[in-house]
Amino acid sequence: MKLLVVLGLVAVVAAAPQGANPNQDIQLIRLESDNDGLGTYSYTYEQSDGNKRNEQGELKNVGTDDEGIVMRGSYSWVGPDGVTYTVNYIADENGFQPQIEQGPGGAVPPGVVASLLG
User: CA distances (Å), 102 to each of 90, 109, 110, in order?
Assistant: First the structure.
């Protein structure tokens, strides 16, 4: 019985994500932001761990009953497998519309796809 418990613990440790260092000191490499105060904005940032994000937004149909904001952007991160994953999106009156890309050697995990697509 003890051997079974030890083998179970070894399996759990072996299955843990490798490569990510939770104590890593992550630095902000780049930050740009612009907001005209009238409904148009943009921002972008990059971190030393490979995470990136950019977004642009603008009001459309200003002054009408159909007034709304349209946002376009992307965000990316480096997964525990060393692969860069990117989500490009548009968010408007039709909701959040993502398109997922992965770098060489990667496959988007089904759970990620399911959570993004609802």
Answer: 18, 10, 13
